[in-house]
Amino acid sequence: MTGRINKAGLQVAPVLVDFIETQALPGTGVDADAFWTGFADLVNTMGPRGRDLLAQREELQAKIDAWHVEHRGQTFDAAAYRAFLSDIGYLVPEGPDFAIETTSVDPEIADLPGPQLVVPIMNARFALNAANARWGSLYDALYGTDALGDLPQGKGYNAERGARAIAWGRAHLDKVAPLADGSWADIDSLNVTDGMLSPQLEDQGQFAGSIGHGDALTVLLRVNGLLIEIEVDPKSQIGAQDKAGISDIRFESALSAIMDCEDSVAAVDADDKVLAYANWLGLMRGDLTEEVSKGDKTFTRALHGDRTFTTSEGHDLTVKGRSLMLIRNVGHLMTNPAVLDSDGREVGEGLMDAMFTVMIAMHDLQKTSGIRNSVAGSVYVVKPKMHGPEEVAFADDIFTAVERVLNLPENTVKLGIMDEERRTSVNLKECIRAAKHRVAFINTGFLDRTGDEIHTSIEAGPMIPKGEMKNAPWIKSYEDRNVDIGLACGLQGKAQIGKGMWAMPDLMERMLVEKTNHPNAGANCAWVPSPTAATLHASHYHQIDVLARQEELKAGGPRGTLEDLLTIPVANGQNWSEDQITAELENNAQGILGYVVRWVDQGVGCSKVPDIHNVQLMEDRATCRISAQALANWLLHGVMTEGRMMEVMKKMAAVVDDQNKGDAAYTPMAPAFSGPAFKAACDLVFEGRTQPSGYTEPMLHDWRLVAKANA
């Protein structure tokens, strides 16, 4: 990249300098020279420390690899393995009990269990949709998906299907906010007179307020902390057919949304990073808009405002119109050519994100009215892919340094620790301790965590197939321990304990059945793939009191054991048939290719990708990591040959081409198999054994840069 600008010894891409100095900094009160000097100091002090931590990862991995090679063919000795992990510093001593000391936390984090969205920040429309997904129409969510057991047919309104959606909604109200007498299905009016709701609720305390009156009334109920709106509008299409004039039931849905700079985006250079930062700036200022076209209509999408209801006592109740937004920064591994240090090295992308996204969030912190994100005065940064307590402490120090440069109070930045790497899982208590003043979020992520599980023990032997991982002893221990340790460390009432994504956005009926597991597990948030899914998942939090469930879990004592967590999912004694091997190879290869071809050729970091059975799955780099590591592991242990693997990759490339034949922007991989996307997918498998922690990012970034240069 030519024409860089020197900023305090850093060589910065002009497009980034222009954005920072003309758009991001104005209004923050931070001087440009002081900003760049502070950032250069951050790079010069934290950059070497970050490189040392990455070298430590590689040293530990090399020792673990050597141990497994040395003990290959022997009966596995769990005690000796655990002692070895302690000896090399992979497993650290556990200190005394403690409770986190996080303060100034917004209620969406501390007090209100509910759904959480994760959305690519580089797509303004998606980001706005996620921010506005705080509220969603239950009738739309039921009518437009398979939640009712089938999909809508035709384009016109189907009154019979509409009646089924209405009946579902009324039955739900009977379960979570029952009337003192009778059923919600039988009422013929809904009124508020002198602060009293008629008909009355069995628990009058669930009536939170109202707005409007008569034929334009919205009633607000509160169930387990979440709000439900019942809209009365007999002049609307739905309300006119309803004997009570109810036109919709709206759920408080995505209480929080993670704006993602990491796994769901393809940001490989300065132009990409500026797009991500510009959208974050618009969200923090409250002025982000996007022109949206549907059919022959075009409209401007913007952030929803707040609304004011009147409580039964006659007081004003301000109801927030938007999700609380967190920002997911890049982890410690990746660098980006947008900024070079004084030695000409690319700067750590996580350092860029820390400095730039927190500075941008100052636009929100300085507000006292209008569209605000954090009313508690905090910035919520989710930090992924950290390995153990030292790396969490490193992140904590990075944000302390950023706060000093920006003159922010210490611990303004609240930290989300993603429990998705094995060294973090086995040391979770100490990871939380390392940032106990700012921790506001922990979670589990099955896919990345499985990818690291495979890579960490890749020399131990061939691993069980991907589909069997959820039944392995380590995964149950992982899910249980995450909640138990979080509760034991005092996260209840101060931080989120989260669970992972529902990856099948079109299968809402199945989600309604299965995703009750997450609030039942004691998680006060869980990821969903769309605003519609958030609305449907909110129904689970109406039925399950998560805070009460957490009390039950605390009283029951710890569940998963470290021994189970350290159980390696090696396929001991399994003798797979050729058909089983072929099915596993093709399933993983097709998933990798289907994701990578959009990532490399089109810069799409997250999308619905059809699997080998044409089931649409929400794919990001985490799903790619597990598939690539699964194949790299089988290749290493001779379950298949390189030649057979390449045959499968070519066969599945043709399948993916056919699945994308309706995309005018798509570039086929077959029959030449010479494009950067196909080469990238192959590299992830054939060189997956040597990739740092099995991550896909380095190769994907390199090949995306090749594709951009070719274009």
TrEMBL record:
Enzyme kind, highest EC tier: transferase
Cofactor: Mg(2+)
GO MF terms held by the record: magnesium ion binding; malate synthase activity
One Pfam short name: MS_TIM-barrel
Localization per record: Cytoplasm
Modification Cysteine sulfenic acid (-SOH), positions: 606
Keyword Cytoplasm on entry: yes
SUPFAM superfamilies, sorted: Malate synthase G
Record's signal peptide: none
EC number(s) reported in the record: 2.3.3.9
Recorded GO CC terms: cytosol
Protein's recorded name: Malate synthase G
Lineage: Bacteria, Pseudomonadati, Pseudomonadota, Alphaproteobacteria, Rhodobacterales
Gene: glcB
